[in-house]
């Protein structure tokens, strides 16, 4: 019996070597996409453009890390785009209308985001409102609050250094905002792989009852996951504000869909228990490269929406097929 | 019954095996018109298999059935229903948000001009309700009906399908005395109408009241048949049990007098049991027996913090350790190895290493910092210690039931608890794996750990336990010493 078992699973697969956790398919897709764009356009495979792609994915990338945690425990967070807007508006209002120092305004904006996440988390754990509904409600509430702050108006005119965070390339390539995204990626990756808190998320997503009986505090973990997702959305809002050098309450509409798409393309299962940051990073890159490449090819934004929809469907269908055969 | 009628349903030499495992050994059974036949037996005696075969859910491996004089071999439940059989399940299968009439006619709504004819539907349903003496409007929603009334709605549904034979599987399991009375009245009515009834239950008293004939099953065979009349309960119980004991059970060391673990006046917040008190000595194996639904699983879940309690407390070495969550219980050294390894014990799509790690994060990562290596080596040590045949990186769903159970044991025993609660530790696993699990129990007991074993397998409880707590319908029916515990005394308490 032992030998049979060995025969089945002895040779470690490529995915476990690179610890991508089932994200090899998306990685191959990403490489093929890059190869195609390199041939199809002159400008894709240039340092300048690739750095552009990195700049363009910062907001999505930061939010996708939080969404990975949420989807890992079998949840969903529809409120990320609205919380992004709320965080922006809180920051803008505090610094430009009330004259608060910008760094302090940023910290308070992140706390406001955390509060929103805590509310959704409590709704889910204490009142048993399904995640889909409670985050849908928060999506509406946070958007409304963001609009109420300035009655729907945008705020412009931040200190000069703020916008430069997204522009100056330190060492010739790294803006502060891209650096921030990389730090979030690394922190998320280490958290999921190497801390008990991270491993617990896999257990909760795999089977909540098993996790609870194993002594894991499922409620607390769930609340913390939604807070984390909200704080990262808030942080993404600050990054977006730096990139645009302005804040407006209509920012981030439908970002939740891109974020969920990135996580799912990265190989996470919406039923929870599987997925990881490596996959999510690839998912984010697929969406970023696709957008960038389609722009370079001169494809209209409307057609782009169709293409991205098709890619999401294909990516998930391919994963499901692979699992069935597996 | 003066005239000799031919039976409406006959079973001849019905056998059923799954692979090499034979679970029904040639059952013969006759049911006549207007007769209530009770099927009686312990858990796992084969009662449900027989009813599932009659209803077309399971196909027999061999044997034949005759239904109203003709050959009968239903390929699926639909065919059985069309032939005039009705099975009323233990768990009710009504749609709560629809009306009684809609439930009765779901899937075969009366139509006129392509639309559902609600009036005809409600009229026909009302007729059936009246036939059963049910004073309920057919256009009432099912939600909020009492369990007994829901059961009667199910029966009404079977009757509109012109059922001539009804199988009632544990119909009174969720009923109070008054509701049971109501149901019995309807059964009498149906009997007078000439409907045959197979009544599955393990409540002896009610079977003695309602049944015309009692068929006792044991280990997949029909062991005895009693005609209505004053058969003493003891005689029936003895035919239900009566097996040789102590075949595969190892020798258990004697225990001392010092009490380590105590449960005092424990009452479930889910109303599953009340006022349970017992003490377990150091190194004692304490069995909990009872029939399905007696509250055994709920009791041990409450002890280990998995279910809420409304009153009572739990002490370990004199210290109050009444838990509020499974995590707290585990930290106190009291662990539950749950009943259903697939739904409660393992994340099936995750590896064995990870599964073992989930319950032992403190031991694997005292500083909350985990490496894959640490999990793997911790798991490997315990895979070896508990004799799991497999490797850490295998997924749990790639393993046999016995090996899965050993992984589950390893998961909860790895951190050396003080009290181990095993809920149905050998359910669905083969004999070899069984005896190695008994060996683990002996090893735990020798180390001075309190072991609490819940089992539906009477032989197992008797074989491993120093003392046995018998539960009956949420009550503590009694605690038996090893000297006084035998299958008859346990069953008498369990059916009291």
Automatic annotation (TrEMBL), chain A:
<keyword id="KW-0472">Membrane</keyword>
<protein>
    <submittedName>
        <fullName>Ribose transport system permease protein</fullName>
    </submittedName>
</protein>
<dbReference type="Pfam" id="PF02653">
    <property type="entry name" value="BPD_transp_2"/>
</dbReference>
<dbReference type="GO" id="GO:0022857">
    <property type="term" value="F:transmembrane transporter activity"/>
</dbReference>
<dbReference type="GO" id="GO:0005886">
    <property type="term" value="C:plasma membrane"/>
</dbReference>
<feature type="transmembrane region" description="Helical">
    <location>
        <begin position="98"/>
        <end position="125"/>
    </location>
</feature>
<keyword id="KW-1003">Cell membrane</keyword>
<keyword id="KW-1133">Transmembrane helix</keyword>
<dbReference type="InterPro" id="IPR001851">
    <property type="entry name" value="ABC_transp_permease"/>
</dbReference>
<feature type="transmembrane region" description="Helical">
    <location>
        <begin position="171"/>
        <end position="192"/>
    </location>
</feature>
<feature type="transmembrane region" description="Helical">
    <location>
        <begin position="223"/>
        <end position="242"/>
    </location>
</feature>
<keyword id="KW-0813">Transport</keyword>
<feature type="transmembrane region" description="Helical">
    <location>
        <begin position="60"/>
        <end position="86"/>
    </location>
</feature>
<feature type="transmembrane region" description="Helical">
    <location>
        <begin position="302"/>
        <end position="321"/>
    </location>
</feature>
<keyword id="KW-0812">Transmembrane</keyword>
<feature type="transmembrane region" description="Helical">
    <location>
        <begin position="263"/>
        <end position="290"/>
    </location>
</feature>
<keyword id="KW-0997">Cell inner membrane</keyword>
<feature type="transmembrane region" description="Helical">
    <location>
        <begin position="20"/>
        <end position="40"/>
    </location>
</feature>
From TrEMBL, chain B:
<dbReference type="GO" id="GO:0005524">
    <property type="term" value="F:ATP binding"/>
</dbReference>
<keyword id="KW-1003">Cell membrane</keyword>
<keyword id="KW-0677">Repeat</keyword>
<protein>
    <submittedName>
        <fullName>Ribose transport system ATP-binding protein</fullName>
    </submittedName>
</protein>
<keyword id="KW-0813">Transport</keyword>
<dbReference type="InterPro" id="IPR003593">
    <property type="entry name" value="AAA+_ATPase"/>
</dbReference>
<comment type="similarity">
    <text>Belongs to the ABC transporter superfamily.</text>
</comment>
<dbReference type="GO" id="GO:0016887">
    <property type="term" value="F:ATP hydrolysis activity"/>
</dbReference>
<feature type="domain" description="ABC transporter">
    <location>
        <begin position="9"/>
        <end position="244"/>
    </location>
</feature>
<dbReference type="InterPro" id="IPR050107">
    <property type="entry name" value="ABC_carbohydrate_import_ATPase"/>
</dbReference>
<feature type="domain" description="ABC transporter">
    <location>
        <begin position="254"/>
        <end position="496"/>
    </location>
</feature>
<keyword id="KW-0472">Membrane</keyword>
<keyword id="KW-0547">Nucleotide-binding</keyword>
<keyword id="KW-0067">ATP-binding</keyword>
<dbReference type="InterPro" id="IPR003439">
    <property type="entry name" value="ABC_transporter-like_ATP-bd"/>
</dbReference>
<keyword id="KW-1278">Translocase</keyword>
<dbReference type="InterPro" id="IPR017871">
    <property type="entry name" value="ABC_transporter-like_CS"/>
</dbReference>
<dbReference type="Pfam" id="PF00005">
    <property type="entry name" value="ABC_tran"/>
</dbReference>
<dbReference type="GO" id="GO:0005886">
    <property type="term" value="C:plasma membrane"/>
</dbReference>
<dbReference type="InterPro" id="IPR027417">
    <property type="entry name" value="P-loop_NTPase"/>
</dbReference>
<keyword id="KW-0762">Sugar transport</keyword>
């Amino acid at each position: 019996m032992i030998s049979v078992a060995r025969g089945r699973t002895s040779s470690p697969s490529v995915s476990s070597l690179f610890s991508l956790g089932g994200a090899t398919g998306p990685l191959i897709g990403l490489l093929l996409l890059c190869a195609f764009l390199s041939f199809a356009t002159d400008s894709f495979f240039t340092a300048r453009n690739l750095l552009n792609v990195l700049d363009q994915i910062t907001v999505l990338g930061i939010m996708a890390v939080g969404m990975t945690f949420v989807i890992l425990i079998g949840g969903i967070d529809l409120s990320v785009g609205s919380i992004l807007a709320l965080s922006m508006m809180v920051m803008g209002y505090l610094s430009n209308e009330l004259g608060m120092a910008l760094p302090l305004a940023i910290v308070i904006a992140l706390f406001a985001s955390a509060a929103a996440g805590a509310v959704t988390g409590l709704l889910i754990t204490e009142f048993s409102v399904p995640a889909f509904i409670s985050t849908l409600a928060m999506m509406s509430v946070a958007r409304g609050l963001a609009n109420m702050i300035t009655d729907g108006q945008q705020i412009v005119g931040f200190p000069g250094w703020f916008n430069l965070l997204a522009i100056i390339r330190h060492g010739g390539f790294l803006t502060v905002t891209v650096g921030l995204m990389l730090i979030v990626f690394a922190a998320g990756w280490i958290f999921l792989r190497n801390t008990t808190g991270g491993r617990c998320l896999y257990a909760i997503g795999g089977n909540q009852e098993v996790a609870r009986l194993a002594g894991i505090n499922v409620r607390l973990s769930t609340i913390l996951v939604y807070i984390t997702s909200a704080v990262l959305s808030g942080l993404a809002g600050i990054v977006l504000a730096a990139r645009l050098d302005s804040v407006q309450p209509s920012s981030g509409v439908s970002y939740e869909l891109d974020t969920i798409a990135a996580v799912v393309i990265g190989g996470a299962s919406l039923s929870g228990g599987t997925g990881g940051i490596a996959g999510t990073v690839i998912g984010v890159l697929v969406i970023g490269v696709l957008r960038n490449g389609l722009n370079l090819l001169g494809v209209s934004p409307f057609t782009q929406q169709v293409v991205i929809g098709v890619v999401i469907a294909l990516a998930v269908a391919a994963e499901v097929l692979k699992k069935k055969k597996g | 019954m003066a005239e000799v009628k031919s039976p409406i349903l006959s079973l001849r030499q019905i056998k059923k095996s799954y692979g090499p495992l034979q679970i029904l050994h040639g059952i013969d059974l006759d049911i006549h018109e207007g007769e209530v036949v009770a099927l009686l037996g312990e858990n796992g005696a084969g009662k449900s298999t027989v009813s599932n075969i009659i209803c077309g859910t399971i196909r027999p491996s061999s044997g034949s059935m005759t239904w109203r004089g003709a050959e009968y071999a239903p390929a699926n439940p639909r065919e059985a229903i069309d032939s005039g059989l009705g099975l009323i399940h233990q768990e009710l299968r009504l749609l709560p948000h629809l009306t009684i009439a809609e439930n009765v006619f779901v899937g075969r709504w009366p139509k006129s001009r392509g639309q559902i004819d609600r009036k005809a539907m409600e009229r026909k349903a009302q007729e059936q309700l009246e036939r059963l003496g049910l004073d309920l409007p057919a256009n009432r929603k099912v939600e909020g009906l009492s369990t007994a009334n829901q059961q009667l709605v199910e029966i009404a549904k079977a009757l509109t399908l012109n059922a001539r034979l009804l199988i009632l599987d544990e119909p009174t399991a969720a009923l109070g005395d008054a509701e049971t009375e109501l149901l019995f009245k309807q059964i009498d009515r149906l009997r007078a109408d000439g409907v045959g009834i197979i009544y599955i239950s393990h409540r002896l008293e009610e079977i003695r009241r309602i049944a015309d004939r009692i068929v006792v099953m044991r280990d997949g065979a029909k062991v005895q048949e009693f005609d209505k009349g004053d058969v003493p309960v003891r005689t029936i119980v003895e035919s239900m049990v009566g097996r040789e004991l102590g075949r595969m059970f190892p020798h258990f060391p004697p225990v001392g007098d010092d009490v380590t673990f105590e449960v005092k006046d424990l009452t479930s917040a889910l109303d599953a049991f009340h006022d349970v008190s017992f003490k377990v000595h150091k190194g004692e194996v304490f069995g909990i027996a009872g029939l399905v639904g007696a509250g055994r699983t709920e009791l041990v879940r409450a002890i280990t913090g998995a279910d809420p309690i409304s009153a009572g407390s739990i002490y370990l070495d004199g210290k109050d350790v009444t838990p509020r969550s499974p995590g707290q219980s585990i930290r106190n050294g009291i662990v539950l190895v749950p009943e259903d390894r697939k739904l409660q014990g393992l994340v099936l799509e995750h590896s064995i290493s990870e599964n073992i790690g989930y319950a032992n994060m403190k031991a694997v990562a005292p500083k909350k910092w985990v490496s894959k290596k640490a999990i793997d080596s911790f798991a490997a040590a315990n895979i070896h210690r508990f004799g799991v045949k497999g490797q850490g990186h295998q997924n749990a769903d790639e393993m046999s039931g016995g090996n899965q159970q050993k992984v589950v044991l390893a998961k909860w025993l790895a951190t050396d608890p003080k009290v181990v609660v095993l809920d149905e530790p050998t359910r669905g696993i083969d004999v070899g794996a069984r005896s190695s699990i008994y060996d683990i129990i002996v090893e735990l007991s020798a180390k001075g750990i309190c072991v609490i074993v819940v089992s539906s397998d009477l032989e197992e409880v008797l074989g491993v336990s120093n003392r046995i707590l018998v539960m009956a319908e949420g009550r503590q029916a009694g605690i038996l010493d090893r000297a006084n515990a035998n299958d008859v005394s346990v069953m008498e308490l369990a059916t009291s």
